[in-house]
Amino acid sequence: MAVMNIEYYSEVLDMEWGVTVLYPDASRVTEPDCTDIPVLYLLHGMSGNQNSWLKRTNVERLLRGTNLIVIMPNTNNGWYTDTQYGFNYFTALAEELPQVMKRFFPNMTSKREKTFIAGLSMGGYGSFKLALATDRFSHAASFSGALSFQEFSPESQDLGSLAYWRGVFGEIKDWTASPHSLESMAARSDKKTKLWAWCGEQDYLYSANNLAVKNLKNLGFEVTYSHSPGKHEWYYWEKQLERFLATLPIDFVLEERLS
Length: 259
Fold this sequence. Notes:
GO terms for molecular function: acyltransferase activity, transferring groups other than amino-acyl groups. This is Esterase family protein. By secondary structure, the protein is of the alpha/beta class. The chain is 32% helix and 20% strand. α4 (122-134) packs parallel to α6 (182-188). The radius of gyration is 17 Å and the shape is globular.
């Protein structure tokens, strides 16, 4: 598996931007001239970047047994959102990034059924948000995702000032009615994306996950949700990524996964 650090000029963000890509070995691609290689977008959490998964987990070892192109973009602490302070991270990742990656990798699939997304914490929110708002992903996964602020105050967790949160989402009095809430995006979605979520029972986001999953199911979504003892830690996210990969319609070689 090749590891590539790519820099390109983002017209949306008006700056040089970086993305890390894992590209499958030739032996993992069924047809050498395949123009339909499946792709997974793998998102980082707060204070992370495009290299977080590589630095904090054995994701390269885990993914070498797949036939996936894995794209790990950066969003700073922008919550995969077009922020109030002018950095349009959502547009950059939802619209511009796939086009840029297709130029680099013309054999990357354009089919929804072979396009997947997953993320941890802030990236769990980003995963569901990008899936619900674009209807371009067949499967989306959240690991300890910050899926709802309906009953959760981020500033109470020392995760940033009130000015920071207003800079990202604006003034919000009712989260579920906000255009940034998953519930608002879900109401406009075609509901064809299969949602997959896990959260640790000792995680401070556990109640937020329970609430968001309940709301999404009430809106008609297929959500596979599990929880087990666990904290807000990389140890659990790596294990859950492995579980999620096993559910996807991709090649996933078990013996190499364990080697």
